[in-house]
Amino acid sequence: MRTGVAEFTLDYGRCPPWLFKRMVRLARIIGIAIIREFGPEEFLKRLSDPVWFQSLGCVLAFDWNASGLTTTTLGALKVAFNGLEKDLGIFICGGKGKISRKTPQEINNWGRQLRLEEKITERLEYSSRAAAKVDSSLIQDGFQIYHHNFIFSRTGKWTVIQQGMNIDKGRARRYHWLGNARKKFIEEPHSGISSPIFLPSVLNLTAKKSRRTRRVATQIVQSPKSFLRDLRVLTVKKGKWQFRVMSLPGIEFHHHPVEMEDFSCEVNPQFKLAISKVIAAKPRNFEKLLMTPGVGPKTIRAISLVAEIIYGAKPSYEDPARYSFAHGGKDGTPFPVDRQRYDQTLAVVERALQKSRHLLAKERSAALRRAESVFHH
Predict the structure, then answer these.
(1) Do 25 and 80 contact (CB within 8 A), yes or no?
(2) Above 90 in pLDDT, residue 241?
C-alpha cells in the first residue's frame, strides 16, 4: 500500500472542458448510486467527511494536491445534479467567489419550489450564514473564505463545505459541517477541517477551552460604558502596548496575538459602527452576538481581547485543523480498523459500479437522460 500526504496548494488554473465533462458524468453516477442505496441524508454525511470528499475528488480525476479539487468537485456535482434535484432529494447551493454570495437566494428559490415551511427555509438560510461567519470570525487562522457550498435535503438536514485561502503561505484550508434544524454553531461545530499546515497561534473561539471567553464576552457588552472604557484602556502606539488607566505586569500578558492592532473607535468608523450595533442589540448569548449585523473578525478580536486581558478569560489559541483517517490502521494506529465502516465503503463502491454499468448500458433512468441533455444544448 502506498501512503502520502495530500497538500492544498493554491491553484490558479482552470479545469479543461473535456475533463470537467467527464467529472460531471462520473459524479452523477456515483451520486445516484449512493443516494438510491442509502438515501440523501447519507450522501450529505459522506460529503461532510473531509477524507471521503478528498477521495471523491481523486476518483473524479482532479489534481489530488490542489485547492481546485474542492471547487471543481463541488462544481461538477452541482452540474451533475442539475435537473435531478427533486428526484434525488439533494439541493446544492452556492459555489466559488461571487456565486457563494447567491447562496441565500438559491436556498429561498428552492424553498418556494419545494413548498417548504417558511421556518424551515429561514433556518436553512440562517445555517448557511452562521457557518460562514463562524469560519471567518470565530476561527481566525488567516485563511480568507472564498468558496461556500450549502447542500441540503427536504428534511432540513444539510452539509456545508467551504474553503479559505492564505495567499502569503500559498495554501488552502477546507471546512466541513454537518447539521440539521437543531444544529449548534458555537462550540466545536465542525465535522472536520482539512489543512496541509498547522499554525502556532490561531484564535479559536469555537473550542471548549474558549467557553469562559464566550460567556464573559456576552456579559461585558451588556454594560456599554464599562466595555468602551475597557476597550480604550487597550491601545497600541508605535507597536507597543500603552495602558492609559492601568499597568499590567509583563508576566502573563507580555505577548498577545493581536497586540499590533488598533481598536480605537475614533479611527475605525466601521469598527465603531459594529460595536455600536452589538451594544444596542444586547445579545443574550454568544451566537446572537456573532450574528449581529456588521460584526466581523475585528469586532470579535476586540471583545475577546477585553475578555482576556481585563477579565482573565483566556481563549484557545490552538489551531483546530486536524488530519483525518478513513478506516484506521491494521496495527491500531491511529485507531483500530472499523470493519463495519470498511465493509460499508466496499459495498457502496461495488454497488456503484454495478449500477453505473446498468445506467450507461440501458439508459433507462429518465432523470439521468434529463441531466445528459445539459451537454447537448
Answers:
(1) yes
(2) no
